[in-house]
Design brief:
heterodimer; A: mainly alpha; 12 helices; elongated; B: alpha/beta; Rossmann fold; Alpha-Beta Plaits; 11 helices; 14 strands; 35% helix; 28% strand; ATP-binding (chain B)
């Protein structure tokens, strides 16, 4: 076991000694900071802080919004439409606060972290790049020959590489969470340790715990991340080319959903990987992609794909000759 | 004779329908430097890849210190240190980090051992530089260092003198002889250059088109008692030719101002005495060793790729 840990350590050393890896962290940090600055300075009203007499403040805000809507709709027909949409939903939400006697939560670090869950797709992208290179690069550098003439089985070498990819994804995720929270705390402040928000779920407003929602959102996005990283890892192992693995995996990541949309009228569409990677489709207030799909079905499909990906990687890595260039 | 360090038994490799290696059988003994000689494309690297388990063996086996590379891979490979083809290292890591990387893959390699190996190959000064900045000669040394880390009893070096300058070649030769003689390591050195192998090896196996066509002991061939080719620059050359033909009773060739004869070593003084005695002007005598080179070329002919 200690042997295996040393192999993983080797992979991590090789990963973090390269500048490209640090650039990835730099890009993620820059995107987070930029996001925070945009939210802060392009204040669209969501940053309003409510005082002790928040009930009156909300009523005032509603009046102002209604007035705005009336003015707009008399000015132009189509311009008023979007204003009506936005203001209308804000008013409804405000009414929900009043009816249920919930003091609106101020936008703070927690909410910023929650909204950054979308950045998990950036992490997917970087993880795909790492997964695509981790086997293929050894072939490119020629170091695979030195790696595989040690008293360590090829399976172990491969497993160490795979674990290293997952470890990288987890590290990036932790970085996203911590860095978002810290920059959020600096720019927006922290409003309590158990924040909640009111969100629109299928036309109905509900109050949610931000921390719990954040964990859920990030966990769901990890499913897609792990599947795409494993896919890239497999391509890397089979074709021994990182370019191909990156290209295919990223293409599928972005095109996958459209493909499913295209063929969703057919029954077999539910067996496509991308119809199943978004487990959020089964949460409250959402409709599954294709009728009749269930969480259990998707998880089984994901497991099948996962096992196939890993088995193919294993076969390609352990059974084939390491020949010349 | 001691127990062989490595045995090749009927080793074959078929890729597709083509038989690349057609059944190799030979042993390599501890303390011996074995030269694996053949033209490019003869199958040297394929054989080496099978020896270290990078390529699967189609038929036959490689036995390393009594363990089969096929069935007891880990036990067998523990005994082996190798460079296969070029000594490729991680270019973005320092020489030392590269060594530490490979050291982590084998239990029991201490930091002291790493330092010791660095000193052995003379890389102390450059060890903290990135391997990507190394010259080919330095990479070759680093390659040897990583192969020696775990004190293997068999060292396999594929074209180790590739890219080295003459002094580098001499140093490498020195380490290799040292390892074999002092540490009883069995060393396998492949090359397509005979002159290098001849100087550092005890035995040479010549491979051509996937077959071993000869295995020679180097000392046998250099201290041979058979005929030597002697070039004598002499004037007048035609008369000298006739004179020599009459006393040697065999054909004598003439090349410009030289006569070329084939005689035993013991006969050379006699021939010269006779020429001088007959008042021929002898300007020079050159003994051409019938070296391995001739033998090699003779054996190899042309390495046609089928």
């Amino acid at each position: 076991m200690s042997n295996f840990i040393r192999l993983v350590q080797n992979e991590q050393v090789k990963l973090y000694v390269r500048v490209a890896t640090w650039v990835m962290f730099g890009i993620l940090a820059a995107i987070i900071l930029l996001g925070a600055v945009i939210v802060r300075f392009l204040d669209d009203g969501s940053l309003t802080e409510y005082g002790d007499n928040w009930r009156e403040e909300i009523q005032e805000e509603n009046q102002k919004l209604t007035q705005e809507m009336e003015e707009m709709s008399s000015d132009s027909a189509d311009g008023g439409f979007s204003v009506e949409m936005i203001n209308g939903s804000t008013i409804e939400r405000n009414n929900y606060y009043l009816e249920n006697d919930i003091k609106p939560h101020t936008y703070d670090a927690w909410q910023f972290v929650y909204e950054n869950a979308g950045l998990a797709s950036i992490i997917s992208l970087f993880t795909i790049i790492v997964a695509a290179g981790i086997i293929a690069n050894e072939f490119k550098w020629g170091t695979i020959k030195l790696l595989l003439i040690r008293p360590v089985s090829r399976l172990k070498v491969m497993a160490a590489k795979y674990v290293s990819v997952l470890l990288f994804a987890l590290t990036m995720l932790a970085f996203l969470l911590v860095f978002s929270w810290i920059s959020g705390a600096i720019i927006f402040g922290v409003d309590g340790m158990n924040p909640s928000i009111v969100v629109d779920r299928g036309g109905e407003f509900i109050q949610l715990n931000v921390v719990k929602e954040t964990i859920m959102d990030y966990s769901f996005s990890m499913v897609n991340l792990v599947m795409m990283a494993t896919f890239a890892f497999m391509i890397s192992s089979i074709f021994r080319s990182s370019g191909m693995a990156i290209g295919l995996a990223i293409f599928l990541m972005f095109a996958g959903n459209s493909v499913v949309g295209f063929v969703s009228q057919y029954d077999w569409a539910k067996f496509i990987l991308f119809a199943n990677t978004d487990l959020k489709q089964y949460t409250a207030g959402r409709e599954p992609w294709i009728e009749g799909m269930t969480m259990g079905f998707s998880i089984s499909m994901l497991l099948v794909y996962y096992v196939v990906f890993l088995a193919a990687s294993w076969l390609a890595f352990t059974k084939r000759d390491v020949a010349g260039h | 004779m001691s127990k062989p360090a490595m045995q090749l038994i009927g080793l074959k490799k078929t890729i597709g329908k083509k038989e690349i290696i057609k059944g190799l059988d030979f042993n390599i003994h501890p303390g011996e430097v074995f030269g694996f000689l053949g033209p490019n494309g003869a199958g040297k690297t394929t054989t080496i890849r099978m020896m270290v388990g990078l390529m699967k063996i189609t038929e036959g086996d490689v036995i390393i210190q009594g363990k089969s590379i096929k069935t007891e891979y880990k036990e067998a490979i523990k005994q082996v240190g190798a460079i296969v083809e070029n000594p490729e290292m991680y270019p973005f890591m320092s020489g030392k980090k590269n060594l530490q990387h490979f050291a982590r893959m084998i239990p029991g390699i201490t930091n002291e051992r790493i330092e010791e190996v660095i000193k052995l190959v003379g890389l102390e000064k450059a060890i903290n530089e990135k391997a990507g900045r190394y010259s080919l000669g330095m990479r070759q040394r680093l390659g040897i260092a990583q192969a020696l880390l775990h004190r293997p009893s068999i060292l396999i070096l594929d074209e180790p003198t590739n890219g080295l300058d003459p002094s580098g070649i001499r140093e490498i030769r020195h380490y290799i002889r040292n390892l074999a003689e002092q540490e009883n390591v069995a060393v396998i050195v492949s090359s397509h250059l005979l002159s290098e192998i001849e100087l550092m090896c005890d035995r040479i196996g010549i491979i051509k088109n996937g077959e071993i066509i000869a295995i020679n002991s180097v000392h046998d061939t250099t201290q041979q008692t058979d005929l030597k080719e002697v070039h004598i620059e002499v004037d007048p050359v035609q008369e000298a030719k006739q004179h020599l033909e009459s006393i040697l009773e065999k054909e004598v060739k003439v090349d410009q101002s030289k006569v070329i004869i084939s005689v035993l070593r013991e006969e050379i003084p006699q021939v010269i005495k006779s020429l001088v005695g007959q008042n021929y002007q002898v300007y020079g005598v050159q003994v051409h060793r019938s070296t391995l080179e001739d033998k090699f070329l003779e054996l190899i002919g042309e390495n046609t790729i089928e």
